[in-house]
Amino acid sequence: MSANGSSETGCRSEVRPSNNSCSQKELSITASVISMTVGIFSNSLALFILIKSYNRIRIKSKASFLLFASSLVLTDLLGHLINGSLVLLVYSFHKKWETFDPHRIVCSVFGACMVFFGLSPLFLGSAMAVERCIGITRPIFHSTALASHHMKRLLGLLWLLAALVAVLPVLLWRTYKVQSSRSWCFFHMEEPKDWLDVLLPLLFSMLGLLALLLSIVCNALTSCALLQARLCRKRHCRGTSYHMEMICQLLAIMLVSCVCWGPLLIHVIMVSTRAKDERASSSLLMVIRMATWNQILDPWVYILLRKAVLRKIFMLFQSCWGPKSHNLHRWQCSMLHSSLETSNSGAGPTDCRYPSRLPLPDTAIQTIT
């Protein structure tokens, strides 16, 4: 509370500690503006790419995947817009919540948005992993039972579940609390009054960890199924390339979610189940900043991990290797392809002959002599 009272007067005095607090405040505002701008730009670009792919695609399974991916990016975009605007509002009033929010309405909205835009990407990421796992391991069931309207209903249910967890503290008269940094609102975790103050943050963390665990299991099963199909040489004429593209995107999303959201979810459990600790309160702000990077990194997964981009990167590296290695790589690929065709056709080793051993025409003989 004392830091809040000195935030405005600290910039006017000539005392060095106050100047440090003023510079820290300006640095926090600058970091918030940069994070908000980069997040809006990244998610807008990724949303444009996904909507363009969704309108052009003709494959049902990939259309379902792109529907969830577009919804995930749209959720991240709205999260940056709403939460970033609330942060700028708090800093514009010098973190004096008693001045602009005497009835804790803005704090309740801020806390609910933090929970909703935190759980929704985790839920959507796990739903994408489950959908791809069913589509690859059980393709007949996926094509018959999982129609497009089922996917849209599932999407609405996931958003509804995240919204229910977000408004649950308000419905139970457990309003969100301004955190120690005075710049955001979250669950009332320090010095809980009763079991509800412990249950609500635990519910948030357990649902998030369950979504991460489900994503890890489903992505592992899907990757093993694709690897087994590759080893068994089960080459499908359609679907293999975009399956690999989606799996790369899912693995990248899972990795980003685990790195960004894992520390926050575990930290909330630790803070909720033990006594008040000033070190834990200060580290909570650090892990929440790590979690906000999830909304910035998610869209770049769809921007960078696309077939067109990956193909250009591969061609760039291939051109840097030089023409000799390029010709060697083409020769190895042609030899591997011819050996696979020979083994699939059932021909013996005597049928495998090089074109150079065929009879040469007379003109070629005259040229050589």
UniProtKB/TrEMBL annotation:
Superkingdom of origin: Eukaryota
Region (Disordered), start-end ranges: 1-20
Annotated TM spans: 27-51, 63-91, 103-124, 154-173, 198-227, 247-271, 283-305
Keywords assigned by UniProt, alphabetized: Cell membrane, Disulfide bond, G-protein coupled receptor, Glycoprotein, Membrane, Phosphoprotein, Receptor, Transducer, Transmembrane, Transmembrane helix
One Pfam family here: 7tm_1
Location of this chain's protein in the cell: Cell membrane
A GO molecular-function descriptor: prostaglandin F receptor activity
Keyword rRNA processing annotated: no
Membrane topology of this protein: Multi-pass membrane protein
BP terms from Gene Ontology: adenylate cyclase-activating G protein-coupled receptor signaling pathway; inflammatory response; positive regulation of cytosolic calcium ion concentration
GO cellular component: plasma membrane
Domain G-protein coupled receptors family 1 profile: 42-302
InterPro entries tied to this protein: GPCR_Rhodpsn (IPR000276), GPCR_Rhodpsn_7TM (IPR017452), PglndnF_rcpt (IPR000141), Prostanoid_rcpt (IPR008365)
Record-stated family: Belongs to the G-protein coupled receptor 1 family.
Name of protein: Prostaglandin F2-alpha receptor
Source organism of the structure: Perca fluviatilis
Lineage of the organism: Eukaryota, Metazoa, Chordata, Craniata, Vertebrata
